[in-house]
Amino acid sequence: MIKLTGRLVCTSVYEADLVRQYLPEHKRLTKEEFGCISFEVTETTDPLIWKVEELFKDQATFDAHQNRTKASVWGNETSTIAREYEIFEVE
User: Fold this and answer.
1) pLDDT at 10
2) Where does the record place the ABM domain (predicted)?
3) 2-89 has which fold?
4) Which entry of 12, 56, 59, 79 is 20 to 30 Å from 70 by CA?
């Protein structure tokens, strides 16, 4: 399995509002993807930072998710927001 953990870090209220606007649909679509085991993006006590936890069946399904995300409305609208992620394989 492939696990991603980290943070989505906004630099302004405008960026945070973009996340709040587009995240619900992004979460819905991701959870429907083949190979998605879990997908959580939760706001932290800092309103500009979200905690991100993803788990996918294997590298191929994770790669498909990444490709879909980059081409999505979410990917386009939030592309300038910093992502601080670690990605690793788990058993």
Assistant:
1) 98
2) 16-69
3) Alpha-Beta Plaits (3.30.70)
4) 12
